[in-house]
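For the sake of transparency, this paper describes our internal protein records without simplification. The tokens are whole numbers drawn from a learned vocabulary of local backbone shapes. One such record is reproduced below, unchanged from the form in which we store it.

. . .
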Amino acid sequence: MRSLDLGWSDNGASQYNVYLSSSPNCDIAKYTLCADAQMLANVRPPLHVEGLVNGRAYYAKVEGIYSKTRSVSNEAGTKPNSLAFNDSVWALATAADGTTYLGGDFTKIGITSGQGMTLDATSGRPSVAGFPVIGGGGVIAAIPDGSGGWYIGGDFLRIGATSKKYLAHMRADGSLDANWTPLPDGTVRTIAVMNGVVYVGGTFSTINGQKRIGLAAIDAAGGFLTAWNPDPDLGVWTIAAANNTIYVGEPFNTVGAFRRGYLAAIDTFGNVLAWDPTADNSVETLAVANGIVYAGGFFESVSGQPRAKLAAIDAASGKPTACGRFTQIGSTPRNALAAIDAASGSVLAWNPDADQTVQSLSVLNDATRGTIVYAGGMFSTIGGQPRSYLAAIDAQGALLPWQPAPNATVDVVAAAGNAVYAGGRFTGLGAVTRNRLAALDAKGNLTTWNPDADQSVLAFAISRDTIYVGGNFTTLGGQPRAHIALVDTAGSVSAWNPGTDGAVRAFAVGGSGNVYVGGEFTHIAGAMFNRLAAIGPTGALLGWTPNADRPVLALAVRPDTGQGESVYAGGQFSMINGQNRRRVAQIDAQGQPMAWSPWGFETVGDLELVDAMVYANGNVYVGGNFTRLGASLGKISESGAVLPFRGTNARVWSLALSGNTLYFGGEFTSVLDPVGPPVPRQRLAAIDIGSGALTAWDANIDNGAVYALSAAGGAVHAAGSFTQLGGQVTGGYTPLAP
């Protein structure tokens, strides 16, 4: 759940009431009929509202009560600023002050937007406040409908709260056209509109249950499937339409009864035309202008003539006449963006210079600003200036200040009027750089903490005001730090630098102030420490050397009860200091394995492992991928007995304990019941460890996996590779109400 802050001018009303709903234009006299409606009575600005849904648009009106009158403000729309990470979050830890530290593979963090969005062509901001969040997959194709709306295609599964797969029509006000209902059974990759017909191509094989292999035509107004059916044998990647001809490209071998190599032309009746340029490899994009068909892709020849990845083909004869991943055109250097004279084929001076692939281009002729080229792709700079994935360039090749800053790849950009539609793999806009490490304050706001790791961060431990960081990185803050480092709360990297020769995967902090370390290393600071080590309160390496034979992935500390604290370890190992301890072990203060050996001598498979451990009330709770200790979730007594406990139908990656509630996350979709049928729980669930009962808590992570959990500060923090939460888009991290 998320929050938002509302502000307004206090002009002396005796009372203010705020009406909040997820429905626009809600009548406050009948507000109880509106979705998610609530009245917040007798409040003053600024107002902080908790308990809102990530990524959902909310609309507010303020009512002022005066001695002789009342007034109602205009409606304001907003979305809670849930954060979206552009790659997996593998580790998190919550400090006593409520700060949550996150580590993983991410490099960008933005405000959750969904995977397709209409942007203002001038400011770069979202142009429709209530535009529904698109998720479950990306938007790959978009084209204007001529009335301010858009036809969009991709591999998405939801638009807002509505199940909508692969193809949709969005109205100019941002709402989904519920009456336009063609239903492909697979991805739509390309769209063209001509004469009131929407032509779509992709990897689908049916639309509305009728056979259409990769290519179909749909009535633009009614949304019904037309009889047009050229019937290619494989999918279609790109379509361009002009002059009653539909040009198509990609991996087909035949269209209808005719052999065609990557390119074909079809009339509006579905007849395959004689036009047959025949490329020798895939065609990724097409455009038609002034009797010329422009093609780009991975081909090296067209109709037997050399044409490296870019060709101009006569629209009538199909003969070659003269955006992608290239570094030169002809003999002229051009990095991923170029302008070519349509008549002569000469490379023009326009040279924006992108550092990575450009996936899509759209040109807007603005009466005030002139010609503007909008580019989307995988790039992070244009002309040496930062521009992540989306940029605007003028007719001279100069980069414009337009900067929506999505957090991941843009696959399609389309411009019309004063709007630009962008779609792709991004889940957030307004992204800032945070290389694999970030921190959020107690309100969920991104802080300036930015230690900057060069590779994956996989583990955290917080000891007093110091954060231990472990992973695959070799530098932190630009300083050499091999897999392990200390960082303070300001983000400064400590001089402490023991270094390991392999990844650090787990930490545990003991009551003595010792920090225990597990992972894939065999040496720390040049000395042999096989996958386990201990660091004293002063940062000195201790002589604790349990010597695991394979990686250690999880650690938990049993407090000192008079014989010194001991450490529970889990992972992929089979031996501790030469003694059989399969996947789990208890290790004493001297580094020796204790008698505790729940797995025993049973055979263990290479894929069986323990990813997470928690010690509480005399029991050890474990999660991973195993059957010997339970079904990927287990409870083990201090004597080593495997106790009856619920399991899951797939891997458990993470555990967190708050009071008597054990939260667990992973890849599972159901929790096993000892006496009844499995209970649906999508990747997150909670058990009362006192009664063993599964609680009603059901966060419903729709995809990916939950790799890390923290239960602190009145919230459950979940992190992983997921992008969907309860039908809403999120990006690898979410705070949840307990």
Notes: The two ends are 10 Å apart (CA to CA). The chain has four domains: 2-78, 89-106+434-497, 108-431, 509-736. The chain is about 0% helix and 45% strand.
